[in-house]
Amino acid sequence: MTIRLATATRTSMVSALATYADSGGSAALIRLYSGSQPASANSAPSGSLLATITCADPAFDSVSAGVATFDTTPALSTSAAGDGDIGWFRMITSDGDTVIDGSVGVSGSGADLIVNSVTTTVGLSVSVTAGSITMPAG
């Protein structure tokens, strides 16, 4: 049989994720990497670190119906630390604990995290324009 989660359960689970993201002493961080996402969020990061963005505090604007939406007001941006194409992201607590890994793309791509451009050059601005985490319904 397939496990299916009720909306209230999904919302509770993604709410716990949002709370954990903010559990460090300051705002959570989003690290943008080149290459392919590792097979597990427990694995060491793969690719080159291209940028690190400090999240709003709290990191998520809303949690509803199994979806946590990143707070992107004010805009989350930083200067790129490396040249390359962004392939994936890892969100960590301010204490360095991994929260989630996810896909990165531009508007319309369907990625978990939306940025202004997936191509970076040292010193160029990289901005998160939207993003959300959806707990699967099953």
Account of the protein in words:
It is built from one helix and ten strands, in the order αββββββββββ. By secondary structure, it is mainly β. The chain has one domain. A hairpin with a 5-residue loop joins β6 and β7. The protein starts with 6 loop residues before the first helix and ends with a strand.
Brief sketch in words of this structure:
By secondary structure, the protein is mainly β. 11% of the residues lie in helices and 41% in strands. The protein has one domain (7-133).
Defining key terms:
mainly beta; 10-stranded mixed sheet; 10 strands; globular; 1 helix; 11% helix; single chain; 138 residues
Topology record:
Layout: H1 7-21, E1 29-34, E2 49-54, E3 60-64, E4 67-70, E5 76-79, E6 84-92, E7 98-105, E8 113-115, E9 119-120, E10 125-134
Parallel strand pairs: 7-8
Antiparallel strand pairs: 1-2, 1-6, 3-4, 4-10, 5-10, 6-7, 6-9, 8-10
Number of helices: 1
User: What gap, in angstroms, lies between the N and C termini?
Assistant: 11 Å
Secondary structural class: mainly beta
**What is the overall silhouette?**
globular
Tally of individual domains: 1
Strand content: 35-45%
- Rg, rounded, reads 15 Å
